[in-house]
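Incident review: delayed structure delivery

Summary: a single-chain prediction request sat in the queue longer than the usual turnaround. Root cause was a stuck worker, restarted by the on-call engineer. No data loss occurred. The affected request and its eventual output are reproduced below so the record is complete for anyone auditing the incident later.

Affected input:
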Amino acid sequence: MSREKLYTHHAGFLVFNTQMGVVFFTLPRIAATHFGTNGWASMLFVGVLVTFNIYLISLVNKHGKGASFFEIVEKAIPAWLLAPLYLFMTGVFSMIGCLVVKQYALIYQLLIFPSTPDMVLKMVLDILVLLLLLKGIYTISKANIIFCLLLLLLAPIFVAFTTEFDSVRLTTSFFQDGESMASGFVKMYSAFMGYEVSLFLIPYASRSVNWMKGVYLGNFVVMFVYMMVTFICYGVFSYIQLKHQSFPLLDLLAYVKFPFMERVQNFLYSVFLISVIVTASMYFWSGKETLARLAPKVNAKYMSTAIVLVTFFISYIPKTLITVEKWFGYLSVMTIFLAFFLPVFALVVLLFRKRRGANA
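Output delivered after worker restart:
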């Protein structure tokens, strides 16, 4: 009986939804604060670097011939020597998944349930994440397609802002009055993070199709959505206003009025929950896949539960949204490092093995 496989559309939708994190709602502020005028254009430069990183992962997929990252490196280096790297990877990926949920819960509390403790909201969300995580990567990929289609149905809403848009607010200058472009670049790059989980999808993907095309396409759609939304925000609010708005996208959505619904932005933010669940699930899954290399005999369901439970208690430490964003900043740097280091590391190992085989 043949094992189930992931295909191009699975990979594309997974990357799209994993990349769409809560930072989406603050991205226009980040662009305005750190890049100043027409900061939306900075996403083009970030997008090129992200695409190059995906290209490195595609090389691992091509030259590794379907072998997982772990199989590649463990053929050259003993597993016990790789243990510190694996533990570091498990910690970073698991905490990213945890903080994605924590950040969403804090904003949700601020907007809708101010009297409800944020940890109660996070506990409910963690249960939903765990239930999806326990189903495995194939079920996650299938459920994610439905989730993505629901999110994409919201896209026509942005047509409503054409009457509010004024090109004069964009100004004619680029990247003026920004505070720290280096810091802004890291924050903006972190908004694209999520594509790196495709490195762990290699052994689950079908070799009969070039599934990496889905990764490129998913990333391209995310870049287009980010640029479109940020561009619209620049034309509706101007970059000076954006600097002082905590959640520019939610303020933008407040312009939408329906006769049968008040505070549409709260409803749309609630719908975004489905993206948060997938993003957290994929990062927890990546952490579980890594930890499983150190404890292969432990049941995967027990391991997933333990990871979610441990990170839940750690999430008690950051109490405010500002603290969570600081933690995200540190973890983003670590994740960016891993996103480039891991495929390069695997490629170096593959090259070393190829040369050693040629000399044998």
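Verification: Residues 108 and 270 are 8 Å apart (CA to CA).
Action items: add queue-age alerting; document worker restart procedure.
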